[in-house]
Design brief:
single chain, 202 residues, mainly alpha, 9 helices
Length: 202
Amino acid sequence: MITWELIVAISAYNFVMYATPGPNNSILTTSGIKFGFFRSIPNILGIPTGHGIQLALVCLGLGSLFTSFPILLDILRYVGSAYILYLAYKMFGSLNVASNEEKSRPLRYYEAILFQFVNPKAWVICITAVSLFYPEKENLIFGTLFMVIMSTIINIPSISIWAFGGSVIRLYLTNTKLKKIIEFLLALLLIGTAISVFIYKI
């Protein structure tokens, strides 16, 4: 049954999960600094789309697959960390060309969607949310829609903060050398994120 208490509880959980540091927010901050907020919008919209699909799949029973075969989450850690390392590599490469704005680009909408399926944090959020907050005695479809809608409503503003923060930093990076230093540090941050994903046992 859907109650106001449930809505408040799941909203608080979603905000904490989506607004705290993780692979998505590291990528969005980097995108905001390199490309600005508006060019990062496809990435911002792709994240809740992919996450909503994940959440629906977990509601429909996929979560039990991870419970039965925990090695699947380990595989996701390895693939997800490898992809983040690839993004860091691309950023390091863009620092060596004169027109790096033209040579590089933010994540496309479909790329942000696909990344959610190798993002271990996203899967853990889904599995935990369904186990704790799925409305009891509700129709399966209605309950799934409730979970996806609540996720999307909270997700978009929570992750947008990171892209917007990056775009604000971008405004102050008029010095080309300083901008390259910041981008270098961001690439290192992505590497750190990849390492944390790789070694963190879920």
